[in-house]
C-alpha cells in the first residue's frame, strides 16, 4: 500500500481499506432495499445530503487501516481521537482499534525527532498553547544542539542499564520520551478519520500533527473523494 514520509524519520502507511464512496451510498440506500452499482450524480447528491444533515452512520461502514511512525508527542495527541471516538457527536463509533509497539518487548535502536535550526518556533503571543513564528536561526541552532546532547545522554544511560542487565521496561525510563519515535496501527471508520482531519488540519493545530494529517488526507482522498469533500470541505 501507499506510504508518505513525514518529518525527518516518520511516515504514514495506508495498510488496508474497506470500501469506497459507493459503500457509503449503499449503506444509506439499504433502508429502502436499494443498491447502486456505480457512483452516479444522484449518489453524489445523497452523500452531500448525508454529510450536510449529520446522518453519519453510513460513513462508518468504510474502514481504513494505517501504520504510523511518529514522535511520542504526536502519538499521544492522536490517541485522544481513539478515546473520544465513541462519544463525539453521539455517534457511538466503536470501530476504532489501536496497537502500539512497546519498549517492554523491543530494544531496537531508538530514533528521535530533533527539529532543525529553522524549525524551532516561538511561544504564541495571545494563547497558552500552540506556537508562533520561527525563532532566529542562531537560537534554533542552540536548542537543536542542546536537544541532541540531551538525547545522546539518555541513550548512553539507557544502553548502560541494558548492559547491566536491567529489564527493558525499566531501562526505557532513561530515554527522552516526547521526541522518541513510536510505531502503531490505527484502524478507524471513514467518519473518525474525517473528524481527525477536520480538527488537525486547522491552522491552529500543532504543526507536527498537521504534517501527519496532510499525509493521511493525501492517502485517503483518492479512495473517498466525494465523502471527504463533504466531511472535510475546507481541506479537500
From TrEMBL:
Q: What's the EC number here?
A: 2.1.1.148
GO terms of molecular function: thymidylate synthase (FAD) activity
Question: What keywords tag this UniProt record?
Answer: Methyltransferase, Transferase
Keyword Methyltransferase included in the entry's annotation: yes
Pfam families assigned: Thy1
Q: Which PROSITE patterns match?
A: THYX (PS51331)
What InterPro entries would the database entry show? Thymidylate_synthase_ThyX, Thymidylate_synthase_ThyX_sf
Q: List GO BP terms, alphabetically.
A: methylation
Family matches, as NCBIfam families: thyX
The protein in question is named FAD-dependent thymidylate synthase
Q: What is the lineage of its organism?
A: Bacteria, Bacillati, Bacillota, Bacilli, Bacillales
Amino acid at each position: 500500500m501507499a506510504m508518505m514520509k513525514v518529518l525527518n524519520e516518520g511516515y504514514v502507511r495506508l495498510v488496508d481499506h474497506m470500501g469506497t464512496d459507493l459503500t457509503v451510498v449503499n449503506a444509506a440506500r439499504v433502508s429502502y432495499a436499494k443498491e447502486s452499482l456505480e457512483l452516479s450524480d444522484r449518489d453524489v447528491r445523497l452523500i452531500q445530503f448525508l454529510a450536510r444533515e449529520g446522518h453519519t452512520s453510513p460513513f462508518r461502514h468504510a474502514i481504513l487501516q494505517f501504520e504510523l511512525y511518529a514522535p511520542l508527542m504526536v502519538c499521544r495527541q492522536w490517541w485522544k481521537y481513539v478515546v473520544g471516538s465513541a462519544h463525539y457527536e453521539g455517534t457511538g463509533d466503536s470501530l476504532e482499534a489501536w496497537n502500539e509497539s512497546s519498549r517492554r518487548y523491543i530494544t531496537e535502536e531508538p530514533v528521535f525527532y530533533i527539529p532543525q535550526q529553522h524549525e524551532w518556533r516561538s511561544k504564541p503571543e495571545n494563547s497558552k498553547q500552540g506556537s508562533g513564528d520561527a525563532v532566529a536561526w542562531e537560537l534554533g541552532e542552540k536548542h537543536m544542539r542542546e536537544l541532541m546532547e540531551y538525547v545522546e545522554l539518555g541513550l548512553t544511560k539507557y544502553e548502560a542499564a541494558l548492559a547491566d542487565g536491567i529489564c527493558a521496561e525499566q531501562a526505557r525510563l532513561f530515554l527522552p520520551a516526547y521526541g522518541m519515535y513510536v510505531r502503531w496501527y490505527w484502524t478507524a471508520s471513514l467518519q473518525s478519520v474525517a473528524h481527525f482531519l477536520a480538527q488537525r488540519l486547522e491552522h491552529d493545530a500543532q504543526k507536527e500533527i498537521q504534517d501527519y494529517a496532510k499525509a493521511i488526507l493525501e492517502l485517503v482522498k483518492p479512495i473517498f473523494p466525494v465523502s471527504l469533500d463533504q466531511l472535510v470541505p475546507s481541506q479537500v
